[in-house]
Amino acid sequence: MARLNLLLLAVLTACALGLVTSQHKARALFAALEQEQERARNLDVEYRQLQLEASTWARHSRVERVAGQALHMRVPEAGRIQVVVRPASGARVKP
Amino acid sequence: MNFATSPVLELNLPVWRSRLLMLAFFSGFAVLAGRAVFLQGLDNEFLQAKGESRYSRVIEISANRGRITDRNGEVLAASTPVKSVWAVPEELKLQQPQLGRLAALLGMQPREIEKRIGDAGGDFVFLKRQIPPEVAQRVADLRIPGLFQSREYRRYYPGGEVMAHVLGFTGANDVGQEGIELAFQDRLAGKPGSRRVIRDRLGQIVEDVEDIRPSQEGRDIALALDAKIQNLAFSQLKAAVELHRARAGSIVVLDVATGEVLALASFPTYNPNNRARLSGAQLRNRAVTDTFEPGSTLKPFTIAVALESGRVTPHTVIPTAPGSLTIGTATIRDAHAEGNLTVEQVIQKSSNVGAAKIALSLPAESMWNMFESVGFGAVPHLGFPGEVTGRVRPYKHWRPIEQATMAYGHGISVSLIQLARAYSVFARDGELVPLSLTRVAAPVVPQPVVSPKTARMVRHMLELAVQPEGTAPRAQIMGYRVAGKTGTAHKQENGHYAPNKYVSSFVGFAPVSAPRLVIAVMVDEPTDGKYYGGAVAAPVFARVMEGALRRLSVSPDAPIKPIELPPEGQEVKESV
After folding, report:
1. Last-in-domain residue among B222, B251, B280
2. Judging by DSSP bridges, how do beta strands B125-131 and B68-69 pair with one another?
3. Tens digits of per-residue pLDDT, B36-92?
4. Which of the residues B84, B250, B296, B351 is marked catalytic?
5. Inter-chain contact B156–A52, Cβ cutoff 8 Å?
């Protein structure tokens, strides 16, 4: 009887320790998940800021100014523009 | 030890005394046990809450406001988190060196900060709102007691003044106040949520307990606007308003096939990123919220009614000599006495007398029906805040002189966007297209207004009006066939027409063989001597149309040769 009790006590202790370990692991994993989610949020914020920055740099008025003044580009005259009509979808343009 | 000799045992005490003592002890235990059962079993909420508050926290989940993009995905407005620095003056401990550093970081004078704290007196004062997160971090590193930060959002508009009137802006709490920001507030706004979590000693979240309120990110909105065409339209409008020293101007570019608004600009404007000094004039989105008497741009509708009724054909001759027409006490005049004009030429030369004579041969009801069915006098249902209806008086009260002046666009008022939309009837074989600020995916359901035959006849007349013999040769574009009509109207002031204040306008579309775009331009009070729609508004139309057609890769439908302009001084003057 006493031996059985001792055995049960050992099993119980093992179970308890297992529970503690798994709970600890779960919490550690959850904390890691939280951190990654936080990182995702921060990256999203950064992405938005970069998008804004890209839009600011790509402002048409700025592009036009840089093209005209720094790169000495100009709009071609109407006579030198050839409009190529894209064939209906599905058809391929032969090279 | 000899117990028998203990003097205590020798005393023969009464039994009840020990019983009493035992009873007292047990009842003491019973009370404690009862209390324990009560606290832990019956009324355990209080202690449970106390316990939870030691480890669980409610944290807010912030939600971003949605982005606004143009039709090609270019970001026109987006929010990013910023910090606001606030103080509790009673708890604030701010010594001299720290004050100096704080002031430098916030870009304020130390005296200014002290004044703010002094003025507030109570328990809360904002020191500075909306500072970038990097600066906020350095402020936090100063570790000043009584100084706190909170997270806010700030909205940025990379397009600046170019898009200002379309997009509008948001207030301090990220709530839309004007334009799209207000019109689509429900869709753009995110719903912040909150959840309960367990934190450990290090402040890390280790367990999710419950979602109290789920958060919802604001939805992005893709507008129909084309950033490049918008920029072109705005810069040309601005140039024209400045060149002609005008008070204001607006321009609308519509896609004929879908009714999408590709560009919408007004001038004067403002920078939505810096709204320190704003006047009402800058804020007004004139194309949508202002009405004006359109003048001759309305003549094609009168002619369309006449053509529909079968009373005239494009070649019917209307005598307009001697260039004036007296109805009652009022006289309608042409800029030039023209003699006999065909209906086509009435449009081409923009003859008021011709249009009035045609109008007087028509029942008032049919004209009113036309105005009503092309959307005048009704809200354009664009979804913009402050859309106006314009004014079309009920036909039962029209006097003949009113019917005659309405034929050429006086005594009636419209907004520029209504006018642009109405011209889709001629660009689209007689159908009126519904307008949309956002991208249109499904085919639109247009509303038939006039027969395709009438629409084509009017379209041909409008093409004649931009020929060298018409009123708007400057609306021509190399390589494309263009059609359109000028308008020049006296402005009304205090119920009278001001003799030297004009509204110049031009509405047209191209390419005529298969119209793609309708563009309407309005310039308010040009003061540099030129005021005819053909001289002020038509060149803006031509440049924007040319750039936009090229942007959309529309094939030219006319031979590419230099534009013919009439010799100097021989331009056809429009009747005002």
Report:
1. B222
2. unpaired
3. 999 888 888 888 888 877 778 888 888 889 999 999 988 999 988 888 888 887 777
4. B296
5. yes
Mean pLDDT confidence for B236-248: 94
Residue with tokens 């316990």: B51
What range defines the domain where residue B218 resides? 61-222
In a domain, residue B11? The reply is no
- The residue ranking higher by pLDDT, A74 or A79, is A74
Given a contact cutoff of 8 angstroms between Cβ atoms, the answer to whether B120 and B134 are in contact is no
* pLDDT mean across residues, chain B: 87
Q: Which H or E element spans position B317?
A: strand B317-319
As a whole number of angstroms, the distance between CA B511 and CA B534 comes to 19
Indicate if B418 and B339 belong to the same structural domain. yes
- Same domain? For B484 and B471 the reply is yes
Same structural domain for residues B179 and B319? Answer: no
How open is the CA angle B82-B85-B89, to the nearest 5 degrees?
Answer: 165
Residue A61 pLDDT: 83
Q: Pick from B222, B257, B277: which residue ends a domain?
A: B222
Count of domains forming chain B: 2
pTM: 0.82
How many Å lie between the alpha carbon of A22 and the closest alpha carbon of chain B? 13
- Nearest-CA distance from B340 to chain A in Å? 38
Residue among A27, A48, A85 minimizing CB distance to B555: A85
- Nearest residue in chain B measured CA to CA from A77: B478
